[in-house]
Structures are given as C-alpha cells and as structure tokens.
C-alpha cells in the first residue's frame, strides 16, 4: 500500500481539515467488480483525549488513469476520550457501482475534521500490530486480478457444463 503523506516508520501525520491517501500498489489488471457491499476500515490513532469530538472519515475510492476520483463507499466515526481504535463501516454509495476497469486504482482516503492547526497520527505499520487497514467486502473478486482459485473453479464449471451439453446432444 502506498501513502501520500510523509511517513515516520509506522505512522503518518494527518493535519486537521486535510486528507491522507492510501492506495494499492498497482491498478486493476482486468475489469472486475466488488458488488454493492460495505467495506470496513480499522483506524488506529493517537492522542484520543485531545481529539475527542472530531470526526474521522474513510472514503473507499476508484481512481481512473486520468485522475478522476469516484467515492464508492464512505463511513465516519466521532473520536472519543481514551479510545484509539475505530472500526468504521464504509457503506456503499447507492449512486455508484463498485466496478473497476483495467487500469483503475483502488484508494482509501482518510480525513479528520479537527482544526487545521492540529494533527493526528494514523498508524499503518507499528510493531505492536495496532495497524490501520481496510477490509474489502466478501464479494471481493481478488484485486488487482481475480484470484486463481476463482478462475479455476469458474473454468472447471464451464468445462463441465460444455461436456454435459455435448453428452446430451450425442444421446439424442
């Protein structure tokens, strides 16, 4: 996963009223769709007491090769005292589809509603396992390409169907 902000080993600094982008290492290598389902974002942050009352938002986005950003799913949580981990459900946007064309990129945009003069840490690779991440829906075909076992099962099913069809034609 690539990041757009300077990193400090295991975290990024997110300024209030700004966004931090995480995006896939490569674009989609074939056309694929995730279905119209919710995504889950786990956000691990710092300084909960000073940031309480502000909102963290996660947008799951499709970025086309020309740079057009389409928000596919979005969710928010209000930060509370003494809490550093947040499970944010990013609900599907009914006005879009979660379909990717060859070359489209998957990205997660994290923003924070705090004052522009304040910052918050978003942990992405700490040694203690308290990491921020995004989980795709169960309908995920395997980004950037469908998983091999899905292709094998699908192909096997097609071959069996074709064989059955030929067998029934010969019996007539």
- Poorly predicted runs: 147-152
Number of domains: 2
Mean pLDDT score, rounded?
Answer: 79
Name the structural class.
Answer: alpha+beta
- What is the element string, with H for helices and E for strands? EEEEEHEEEEEEEH
CATH topology name of the largest domain, in short, is Jelly Rolls
CATH homologous superfamily name of the largest domain?
Galactose-binding domain-like
CATH class wording of the largest domain: Mainly Beta
How far is the first residue's CA from the last residue's CA? 56 Å
**CATH architectural arrangement of the largest domain:** Sandwich
The gross shape turns out to be elongated
Provide key terms for this protein.
alpha+beta, Jelly Rolls, 2 domains, 10-stranded antiparallel beta sheet, two-stranded antiparallel ribbon, 2 helices, 12 strands, 16% helix, elongated
Tell me what the structure shows.
The chain is α+β, with helices and mostly antiparallel strands and 172 residues long. The chain has two domains: 2-141, Jelly Rolls, CATH 2.60.120.260; 142-172. It contains two helices and twelve strands; from the N terminus they run E-E-E-E-E-H-E-E-E-E-E-E-E-H. Strands 1, 2, 3, 5, 6, 7, 8, 10, 11 and 12 form a ten-stranded antiparallel sheet that branches. Strands 4-9 form a two-stranded antiparallel sheet. The longest helix is centred in the C-terminal third of the chain and has 24 residues, at 148-171. The protein starts with a strand and ends with a helix.
């Amino acid at each position: 996963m690539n990041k757009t902000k300077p990193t400090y080993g295991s975290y990024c600094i997110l300024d209030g009223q700004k966004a931090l982008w995480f995006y896939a290492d490569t674009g989609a290598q074939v056309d694929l769709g995730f279905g119209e389902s919710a995504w889950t974002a786990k956000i691990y942050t710092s300084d909960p007491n000073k940031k309480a009352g502000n909102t963290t938002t996660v947008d799951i986005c499709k970025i086309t090769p020309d740079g057009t950003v389409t928000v596919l799913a979005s969710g928010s949580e209000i930060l509370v005292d003494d809490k550093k981990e947040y499970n944010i459900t990013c609900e599907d946007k009914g006005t879009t589809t979660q379909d990717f064309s060859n070359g489209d990129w998957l990205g997660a945009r994290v923003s924070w509603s705090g004052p522009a003069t304040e910052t918050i840490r978003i942990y992405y690779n700490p040694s203690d396992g308290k990491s921020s991440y995004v989980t795709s829906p169960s309908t995920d075909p395997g980004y950037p390409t469908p998983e091999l076992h899905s292709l094998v099962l699908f192909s096997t099913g097609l071959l069996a169907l074709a064989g059955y069809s030929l067998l029934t034609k010969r019996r007539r």
